[in-house]
Amino acid sequence: MAAEAERARVFFALWPGTTTAESLAHIASEAHKRFAGRLMRPETLHLTLAFVGTIERTRIADLVAAGDRVRVPRIELSIDTLGQWQKKHIVWAGPAEPGVALVSLVESLRAELEEAGMALERRPFVPHVTLLRNADCDTGRNALACPLKWQVNGFVLVESRLQSTGAGYEVLARWPRQ
Ligand code: 2AM
Question: Do 37 and 134 contact (CB within 8 A), yes or no?
């Protein structure tokens, strides 16, 4: 087994631009008044497409190659739902329906990752942006009073590092490639 420094916890995600992140942060602070818990910092807000987990760093090149084989879509996401997961103590925002374009992006990513020999968990995909952790919530969904439109023009590969302030994320690669 490789030493910890040679391993990385990684996932593919949609990362909002500043304006969308600010709107999501506003929804989060409103939700915080009701559910308390720990507010995610605006710069860490994201929607996970495919969670790869902890791998050896040498495999990051394979992940980038897998990302290169995926067509980069343009998607208009309607973030219209506030969801609660009681067991995970999470409050999240997301679209009521995942939509064909988003599901197709997730499926292509998964197919390329599996082709590259990555073992992925077969959890059903529920598109969500975690807003609060350790929240005092139930399980359910409500329509957001002020839904927001998120223009998606690409996706990212991210490394997650646990820090004293919560998770710290570093973008390892972006698509379209820059
Ligand atoms: P969460 O916000 O619902 O916890 C970094 O941890 C990102 O990967 C988060 O978006 C987290 O989702 C997601 N994540 C963590 N473990 C996961 C798993 N086993 N399957 C899918 N997504 C996971």
Answer: yes
Q: Count of H helices and E strands in the chain? A: 3, 9
What are the tens digits of pLDDT across the range 107-121?
999 999 999 999 898
d(CA 46, CA 69): 22
Enter the pTM of the model: 0.95
DSSP labels for 57-94? GGGHHHHHHHHHTSPPP-EEEEEEEEEEETTTTEEEEE
Residues forming a β-bridge with 142: 82
Q: Is 160 in the pocket of ligand 1 (CB under 6 A)?
A: yes
What the block records as the tokens of 108 is 């292509």
Q: Is 121 in the pocket of ligand 1 (CB under 6 A)?
A: yes
Strand partners, 167: 162
User: Whose C-alpha lies nearest to ligand 1, atom 21?
Assistant: 51
User: Judging by beta carbons within 10 Å of its beta carbon (0-12, 13-18, 19+), is residue 173 exposed, middle or buried?
Assistant: middle
Cα separation, 64 vs 88, whole angstroms: 30
Per-residue pLDDT of 122-166, as tens digits, reads: 889 999 999 999 999 999 999 999 999 999 999 999 999 987 777
Q: Is the preceding omega at residue 73 within 30 degrees of 0, hence cis?
A: no
Best mutation site among 46, 49, 51 for ligand 1, i.e. most ligand atoms within 8 A of its Cβ?
A: 51
